[in-house]
Design goal:
The chain is of the alpha/beta class and about 475 residues long. It has helices at about 15-25, 30-45, 55-60, 90-100, 105-115, 130-135, 145-160, 165-185, 205-225, 225-230, 230-235, 245-250, 260-270, 270-280, 305-315, 330-340, 350-365, 390-395, 440-460; strands spanning about 1-5, 25-30, 65, 75-80, 80, 120-125, 140-145, 195-200, 285, 295-300, 320-325, 345, 365-370, 400-405, 410-415, 415, 425. Bound molecules: 2'-deoxycytidine-5'-monophosphate (DC).
């Protein structure tokens, strides 16, 4: 698992990343120490300000080494010389921004960071670890804090080491570094779209650590084997009897894959599909890819609240949809979709009940429908695929079928229904990586391939407008 923690200077990254790594038994990589060491080399070789472009070659020749420490700053060495303290001094802090903006330096250090993190679990900390170094990191955190707070923290650190610098000076230094880091052309500091921002102003260190660890736990739950995802799942029999408590109160939804279940669904859908398909002049292609029986994970793009109906009328088998829990707030709708076998998921959290329900449904040889983009993409683009989908796609015996809906984003406008054309395409089963690939990497591959399949399907559709 890769955890990327980015943020501006003094936001608390080092302390938090180190503590999180320690608590979770992971390795820790301070990428800032690497840039600082190259900056020290460049300073000493007189490469600043005009010959920074020579810094990468010098760094390649010099023997740079970094040693993680459980309880202290990462130690840095140039050959046998230890520079742990020096690289954190004021001179280097001032020189590091222009050095870290050099393309060759970034290419060199990014490659080294990827290599260093290639094996096992690691927490990386820096400016671009979640955007450039590992854009597919499992957990991305963006730490921020007010500039005054960051200057106060830096001052306390310096005082502890016996040096002092005024609050005003530190605010100015940090402000300049923020501007440089965010404004540079290459790998500027910014929050990745899928990063979780934590404002640490006014938070204690244990509080921030706890927040990060909770996010990691939630992610683990999604990525992990079912035994970890829902400990009771391993012991409980799969199929109807294992339906989670939330769903039990609805008698009918206990019948996953059973005759009554599908009968109700068939009844509800027996007269709707032909009319619906005609109203929207639907064109459906790729149905030959759909297995007639057995566990199927149907993953569709998502553009409209009506998408489940468009999927339902296009697909020849009953689908158990995972749908946002908010839909159950409107009780009659909740009852209806429950009868149809849809089940709720609380988005943005590790919803064990929903995970277990989906796994049980697949184990019963039925079809589970999901919208892995998480949110509707009303512009017609393909959205970011949530990596949680891999937990289901990677189950043994599950066939994952990608599907693309086009035109549904125009069906409801200003609360009115418009009978726009809708196109649907099913793709061939997703080719999934085997057990020889590490689990975290497999999850990344699933999202990549799904993303690729969505784009291919979108291109294969005739213009629907
Ligand atoms: O986190 P830090 O203050 O030790 O980082 C030192 C400098 O290195 C900082 O000014 C920006 C740069 N840096 C970077 O550009 N990319 C990273 N991944 C880490 C640090």
């Amino acid at each position: 698992m890769i955890i990327a923690i980015d943020g501006p200077a003094g936001s608390g990254k080092s302390t938090i990343a180190r503590e999180v790594a320690k608590r979770l038994g992971m390795r820790y990589l301070d990428t800032g120490a690497m840039y600082r060491t190259v900056a020290l080399l460049a300073l000493e070789a007189g490469l600043l300000p005009d010959r920074i472009h020579e810094a990468a070659a010098l760094a390649t020749k010099s023997d740079l080494r970094f040693v993680d420490q459980a309880d202290d700053l990462t130690r840095a060495f140039i050959g046998d010389r230890e520079v742990t303290e020096e690289i954190r001094g004021r001179e280097v802090s001032k020189a590091v921004s222009p050095v870290s903006a050099d393309a060759a330096v970034r290419t060199l250090l990014t490659a080294q960071q990827r290599e260093a993190a290639a094996h096992g679990d690691v927490v990386l900390e820096g400016r671009d670890t979640g955007t450039v170094v590992f854009p597919d990191a499992d957990v991305k955190i963006y730490l921020v804090a007010s500039i005054e707070e960051r200057a106060r923290r830096r001052r306390a650190q310096l005082l502890a080491k016996g040096t002092d610098q005024s609050q005003e000076e530190l605010v100015a230094d940090i402000g300049a570094r923020d501007a440089y880091d965010s404004g540079r052309d290459i790998a500027p500091l910014y929050k990745a779209g899928d990063a979780v921002e934590i404002d640490t102003t006014g938070m204690t260190i244990p509080e921030v650590i706890q927040a990060v660890c909770s996010l990691v736990e939630a992610k683990r739950l999604h990525l992990a084997a079912p035994a970890e995802a829902a400990p009771q799942a391993a012991a409980a029999p799969s199929g109807p009897a294992a339906v989670p408590a939330k769903a039990k109160k609805y008698l009918l939804s206990r019948m996953i894959g059973g005759p009554l279940d599908s009968l109700l669904y068939r009844f509800a859908f027996s007269f709707i599909p032909p009319v619906w398909r005609r109203l929207f002049r639907m064109k459906i292609k790729g149905v030959e890819h759909i297995p007639a029986s057995g566990a199927v994970l149907l993953v569709s793009n998502h553009r409209s609240n009506l998408d489940p109906f468009f999927v339902g009328v296009s697909f020849p088998r009953q689908i158990h949809f995972m749908a946002k829990a908010e839909l159950w707030k409107f009780k009659p709708l909740g009852k209806l979709i429950d009868i149809l076998g849809t089940f709720p998921v609380n988005r943005g959290e590790a919803d064990r009940t929903a995970v277990k329900r989906a796994l049980d449904t697949l184990a019963a040889g039925a079809v589970v429908g999901m919208f892995p983009e998480g949110h509707r993409q009303r512009t017609g683009e393909v959205g970011q695929i949530q990596s949680g989908v891999s937990l289901f796609a990677l189950r043994e015996g599950v066939v994952t079928i990608p599907m693309m809906l086009d035109g549904t984003e125009r069906v409801v406008k200003k609360g009115l229904m418009r009978f726009h054309r809708v196109r649907v395409a099913f793709g061939p089963p997703l080719e999934l990586p085997g057990a020889e690939v590490p689990r975290a990497q497999r999850a990344v591959l699933v999202t990549e391939r799904l993303n690729q399949a969505f784009h291919e399907l979108l291109e294969s559709l005739p213009e629907a407008r």
